[in-house]
Structure formats: structure tokens, C-alpha cells
Amino acid sequence: MKWIWAALALISLNAHAAGATLEIVADHERLAFSEAQLLSRGDIQTIFVADSVYKQRFTQFKAIPIANLFKGFAIPELAAIQCNGTDGFAAVLDKTRLFSTDPEASKAYLAIEDPKSPWPQLAGRTTSAGPFYLVWTNPQASAIGREEWPFKIASFDVLSDPHSVFPHIYPAGDAALNVQNGFKSFQKNCLACHKMNGDGPGSIGPDLNFPMNPAEYFEAKALASLIRHPASVRTWPGMVMRGYSEAAIPNAELSDLIAYLTYMSTPKDKP
User: What does pTM read for this prediction?
Assistant: First the structure.
């Protein structure tokens, strides 16, 4: 029995020594960074972040400016950056926000968990936000939303043209302005977890148009309550959706989001 435990301990140590790997994929280009490589880079710095998922419980991170990791990649004008988590969360991020050089804007960093000094566990979980976590300094400057802080990151994909990758999430070009604005809110707040017409990278929540769109079985007031306070409308053991406060989605934006969902319900693009 002792040799079995020794073997298991050795496997555990080897796995820990190997560390996590982060991938960046753009067309036929692929780069992989080990945890150790990232922690030994010359551009790594210690930053103070008070608005992370940890809030004041943990505020100092070893981090690298996100823009530095993408140097050398040819990123098309219409591109977006898809951030893939090991938990099924997949945020599609605006590259102009992610790589902004405006000193007055929010700045994105990749925080790297040091195995020698692990981060605290997330509330209600047995794991941390690591090994890689996208964090922002001065997030209020660019109104960075909650879904733009993905953690447990495994990889980044450069989507050269998101419209061609996820064509069935887009409203028609002549759709009303409130629908177009609601689509932007959907991209920012919903797409990381939910698909629309079978399109989208997220796999945590259900498709929001098939088999039925929530606008088809909720009145607008109930749908607004579901977005604001999900548990006030329905609960289930595996529920993970958190509500969006008025600070996260202002009332006018919430109205536009519901307009987008209603618009997408008829006609539907079958997955």
C-alpha cells in the first residue's frame, strides 16, 4: 500500500511541477506559455486590483499587460478576442477595450497565480480564480462589465470576423436602434454563458432562442426580474446565474436587451 501512496504523491508533484499552460490561437498561429514562463517574464509586475472577484479579500496580483502577450500577432480590424475558461465560460471581448493605450481608459492584465503562493479559494468553490485571470485596473473608466473579468482561463482565440463565426446571433442591419443596442448588451453580458440560435462559445447556460426564447414565455416585467434577480423568478439546484444590478445594466439598457431578445424570437434561425 505504501508504494501506491508514494506513486500517487509522485504523480501529484509532477503534475504540479508541470504547471498550467495558456494558449493563444490566431488563424494558423499558435503560442503556448507555461505558468513558469509567464512568471519569469521581464514585463511582469505586481498590481493592486480592488474590483476583482475577491474584492478586498485579496488585492495584489502578479500580472502582465494583455497587449504584451499578443505582440507579433496580426490582428484584423474587425477581430474580437474570445477568452475560454476551463469551466465552460467563454467571453468574446472587444479588442479596442482589451488593447487600449489610452492612459485614461481601463487597462487589462493577465494575472498569473504563483503555485508557490496560491490565491484564495473563490466564494462557494473549492478552487481559486487561477491559474490565469483577466483583471482590470481603473475598470470604472471604461465601464468594464462583470463578464469581462473571466477567470480560470485556458486559452485566447483571435476571431478574425466574429460575424462570420457566429452569424446567427446578429440582428438584421436595418433592425431598430434599441435592438442594435440590446445586441451589444447581449454580447457583453450574456454571450459568455449562453448561445443564440446555436451560435456562441459559452456552454454554461441554455440557448436563449431554442427551443424557446425567454421573451416567448415571460412577460417583459418577469423577464426583467429574471435578469435583475434570477432567484426571485425561479430556482434550481444547479443555478449559477447571478443577477445584474442597475449599476451593471442600467434600466434603459435592460429595456434594449429585452427588445433584442424579443426581436430574435421571430423569425428564428434554427441551429
Answer: 0.81
Whole-number Å distance between alpha carbons of 19 and 21: 7
pLDDT tens digits, residue range 34-79? 999 999 999 999 999 999 999 999 999 999 999 999 998 889 998 9
Average pLDDT score over residue span 197-208? 90
CATH number at residue 143: 3.90.420.10
34 and 158 together in one domain: yes
Q: What is the dihedral of CA 33, 37, 38, 39, to 10 degrees?
A: 150
Q: Are residues 174 and 158 in the same domain?
A: no
CA distance 229 to 241: 9
Same domain, 88 and 143: yes
| CB-based contact 110:134 (threshold 8 Å) | yes
Q: Name the residue type at position 116.
A: K
User: Dihedral sign, CA of 214, 220, 221, 227?
Assistant: positive
* Contact assessment for residue 119 and residue 58, using Cβ atoms and an 8 Å cutoff: yes
Helix (H) or strand (E) holding 211: none
